[in-house]
Design goal:
The chain has helices at residues 5-10, 70-85, 107-110, 115-121, 128-131, 148-155, 185-190, 192-201, 207-212, 225-236, 241-253, 259-273, 277-288, and strands spanning 16-18, 22-25, 31-33, 43-48, 54-59, 91-95, 100-102, 137-141, 144-146, 158-162, 166-168, 204-206, 218-220. The protein is of the alpha/beta class and 297 residues long. The protein has 2 domains: 43-237, 2-enoyl-CoA Hydratase, Chain A, domain 1, CATH 3.90.226; 241-288, Lyase 2-enoyl-coa Hydratase, Chain  A, domain 2. Strand 1 (16-18) and strand 2 form a beta hairpin. Helix 11 runs antiparallel to helix 12. It is globular.
Length: 297
């Protein structure tokens, strides 16, 4: 969960012009949605999409390249939990800014931690709020996603990346290892050999390579990333929220069990859909050649 100090020193800052509902980054065509009702110190939230059914969370520590301090993760966990409980929200997007999704953990915050304090306090326990979310969570990654930033992206169900995104697990450079999934999720996504190379060297990989190895679903121009991610969330939102949640559970089970056990789990969830009104409505609508009217039941 490392942050690389060099990253913050070599990137030139850009002015941000606030225009109320939107903020435009100077010298670019990049427009991002900002919340007009700041409820948090380290994140910004809003509801977007044509049907206002997509929860948008933006990490907001730009001077620290969105370094993942504990207060930020407490706020992030609360925002995700609140969106998960909101019946009007179909999917959740987590994003950063053009320079950084999250350049790593806040090293100053953890440098004096001890084994004892980590164990007693359950260090990083706040991260479980993301993985426990029942709704689809999509990472929209521009810029750096390093250490904890890469691990946060992997906590999400789908990763879309801007063409200039950089991923990596550079913890080895500061005498530690990934502690929030980097050694466990990464091999499952990209294979043992690639994961070993990334973890043991601390080298970065670009968006194109990340897509090639299966870490990222799609890569877009920087200015199109958020727009395309919202489109994906809206597409998911056209389906039954109940069935989407069941489908997510079934796919995630593939990483937790053997193939035989996973197939049994899938079959039980599949059978379970036949106890829902939305399954009946979906099949009836298909036979009747009309659009389904799902009710999350």
């Amino acid at each position: 969960m490392a942050s690389v100090g060099l990253v913050s020193r070599v990137i030139l800052s850009k002015n941000v012009i606030n225009t109320g509902r939107f903020a435009t980054l100077s010298n670019t065509g990049f427009i991002k949605f900002y919340s007009t009702a700041p409820q948090y110190e380290n994140i910004k939230i809003d509801v977007v999409g044509t049907k206002k059914n997509v929860g948008l969370i933006q990490l907001n520590r730009p001077k620290a390249l969105n370094a993942l301090c504990k207060p930020l993760f407490v706020e992030l966990g609360k925002a995700v939990t609140d969106f998960d409980a909101d019946q009007s929200i179909a999917a959740i997007i987590i994003t950063g800014n053009e320079k950084a999704f999250a350049a790593g953990a806040d090293i100053k915050e953890m440098q004096n931690n001890t084994y004892s304090s980590n164990t007693k306090e359950g260090f990083l326990k706040e991260w479980e709020d993301i993985s426990n979310c029942g709704k689809p969570v999509i990472a929209a990654v521009n810029g750096f996603a390093l250490g904890g930033g890469c691990e946060l992206a992997m906590l999400c169900d789908i990763i879309y990346a801007g063409e200039k995104a950089k991923f990596g697990q550079p913890e080895i450079n500061i005498g530690t290892i990934p502690g929030a999934g980097g050694t466990q999720r990464l091999p499952r996504y990209v294979g043992k050999s690639k994961a070993m190379e990334i973890v043991l060297t601390g080298n970065f990989i670009d968006a194109q390579e990340a897509e090639k190895m299966g870490l990222v679903s799609k890569v877009f121009p920087v200015e199109k990333l958020l727009e395309e991610t919202i489109k994906l969330a809206e597409r998911i939102g056209t389906h039954s929220p109940l069935i989407v949640k069941m489908a997510k559970q079934s796919v995630n089970q593939a990483y937790e069990t053997t193939l035989k056990s996973g197939l049994l789990f899938e079959k039980s969830i599949f059978y379970g859909t036949f106890a829902t009104a939305d399954r009946k409505e979906g099949m009836t609508a298909f036979v009747d050649k009309r659009s389904p009217n799902f009710k999350n039941e």
